[in-house]
Amino acid sequence: MSGSSTYVPKSALGRWFENRLPIVGLVHSSFVVFPVPRNLNYMWTFGAILSFMLVAQIVTGVVLAMHYTPESTMAFSSVEHIMRDVNYGWLMRYLHSNGASMFFLAVYMHIFRGIYYGSYKAPREVLWILGVIIYLLMMATAFMGYVLPWGQMSFWGATVITNLFTAIPVVGKSVAIWLWGGYAIDNATLNRFFSLHYLLPFMIAGVVGLHVWALHVVGQNNPDGVEVKNVERDTVAFTPYATLKDAFGLAVFLIVYAWFVFYIPNYLGDADNYNNANPLVTPAHIVPEWYLLPFYAILRAIPNKLLGVVCLFGAIALLAFLPWLDTSPVKSAKYRPVFRVFFWAFVADCIGLGWLGSQEVSDSTTLAARLLAFCYFAFFLVVLPLLGLFEKTKPLPASIADAVLASGAPAAQPAE
Amino acid sequence: MIRFKNIALAPAAVAVLLALGAVSRADDAAPAPAAPAAAPAPSAATAPTPAKAAAAPNANQGAPTPGDNAADEASQPSPPRQSWSFSGFFGGYDQAQLQRGFKIYREICGNCHRLSIPFRTLSDPSGPGFSEAQIKALAATYQVTNDTPNDKGEIFKRPGIPSDLIPPPDAYPNPEAAAATFGKEPPDMWVLAKARKYERGFPWFIFDALPFVQYQEVGADYIHAILTGYTNSKDPSWNLYFPGHKIAMPQPIADDAVEYTDGTPAKLDNYAQDVTAFLYWAAEPTLVERKKTGLRVMIFLIVFAGLLYLVKKKVWAKIH
To answer: Does A405 touch chain B if contact means CB atoms closer than 8 Å?
Structure first.
């Protein structure tokens, strides 16, 4: 679908340059004439939104790093210095801290959209796995970023997560000491987390490049899950069609983002993180940021520490195996009535796990978390493999164009 | 594809949410114990609340219960919701209130609590708004330890200047000294209002994030509640709203403790309101600028999104 660049430079200089580095042609073929299925809905705007959020996080983060002090006795006050004394420091900091949440909100929409419409299925397996790697890198980046303000929840969250590594048999303790740069979380840990928090976003950007590259090789999936058969009939040009749609989606997303930044900037954060880190005072209730809560609930639900850690990472790793766990040849949930029910149950399951992860541990929450964790794994390991064998799917449309016409869109004028 | 019937549903959904939000407010007004227990959800999720309530009386049997509050002992009421000038879309600080609040900090809280902000910030026009001369005079009443020694190599004290941080209390120059007296160090008050909360519980925490019913002032309500929560005359360190009720800080302020010169009645509730508002400003001095900027950003984004939608619709109309 791509690679067929139709770009013709208009000026002599443009031709000279294009013969030496065809980068304008690359942009032209990737973001101007690139064929986009014409039936995409607004769930497909999250790719552009995520690209924007990555850039926004890097830009605000670079500015914050100019004023932040990664030193354990000064980190907390340096964040307050940014909030009070730096011009628009409060804006940069609230954009960055809420930006992390918005980034995850968008990535969860993106991932659930991928699951609903079977976007991981052939030929998009590599594209999907690259996405899972980005998600993992995002979680590592967000976790280390949350440590930097050096509040109580930063410190104790870091304690809980780094202690997970001590569960590894034989070498666990050594690994944890290596991670900490000492025998406990301290200045050395803060320093390396700052360094890595600055590094990882650029690694994400690199993998995003591969993700987009892979996307432009195999083309986008679409709500009907049938591949493009006739480029003329089934697709529209990326620009202006997808560009404008993405721009509108992004603008609406920015309204939500701005709402959080300007009116409820501390809603998603924990109040305890405005208390300076104190290794001698354990908070009554240690909770990670909301986007990690479902995994935290799975971790706490398992009584054995090593097994808990295995399940925690397994819950994420399973995503990478989705292309082979889902045995159904039909991609879109639109034509899979039973899968659709299980999908929404899975979404509810994840939200339920998230809520349980935010609650204090009691017998009933542990029981509920075990039940929901079991359902989480069952969705991947039992439901998806079996559904493909037994589910009676609805007939697929012959082509994307047929699906569009069938859904009652007015076909007044022919395509351009 | 744009589905118009879905778009038409959106305002209806918003209306339902707002109505629910209003209900959540009505609930706040009633001085009932923690609301989430009333949420009728059949899932296991709500189970912990009754379990906790059942466990609480047992836990209290060992401890001596204060006589006139035995009924309250088992429950932990949520702080009653106050109306703050700095809440809502256009909320800002009330200058006179912050000035009264600063007076209370200076005469009462400042005896034990640090407030690590520079004197100069007290001239913030959207905050307490003291004049430059007032700040200079105020700073000079404090003795500040100089950062560097003098030419004889001696550490010395000098009168404060506006760029100095408000120095720690004379009686407790370091946190350890205060901890030795009270058993716990009095927290620095500069971000206190953002560092305190109470659990809102399901489903109220959802409404707290929504436009028009947003609720960001949990920390302020908590501090106000603590200051007015010393309701047991026999035990000065018993607080109705403190988790577990036993608080290290003995009742700090009561009626007539601070003289008001602007005619505001010298009542505990007014003191609590004023000093809490002051502490909220100290924790979030950029709130007014933030909300003002936010309004412009919102108007821009909504208009911009609307225009983009129209352009998008026009361009896409060609291919339908």
So the answer is: no
Helices A305-320 & A125-147, crossing angle to 10 degrees?
140
User: Which residues from chain B sit within 8 angstroms of residue A252, using beta carbons?
Assistant: 305
Residues in CB range of A55: below 8 A, 6 or more apart: none
Rg (CA), chain B: 25
The model carries a pTM of 0.89
Split at pLDDT 50, 70, 90, the class of A393 is very high
User: Which two tokens mark B93?
Assistant: 């600080």
Q: Across the interface, do A267 and B285 touch by the CB < 8 Å criterion? A: no
Test B219 with A77 for CB contact under 8 angstroms. no
pLDDT in the model for residue B76:
83
| Distance (Å, whole) CA A339 – CA A341 | 5
Q: CA–CA distance from B204 to each of A50, A260, A294, B44 (Å)?
A: 29, 17, 20, 18
Give me the amino acid identity at A184: A
Q: Which of residues 341-360 of A touch B (CB under 8 A)?
A: 352, 355-356, 359-360
A262 touches chain B (CB under 8 A): yes
Q: Which amino acid is at A400?
A: I
Please list the rounded mean pLDDT of every run of 10 residues in chain B (320 residues).
50 59 48 37 37 37 41 73 96 97 96 95 96 97 93 94 94 84 90 95 93 95 96 90 92 94 95 98 97 98 98 90
CA distance A408 to A414: 15
Among candidate residues A100, A80, A147, A91, the one with its CA nearest the CA of residue A268: A100
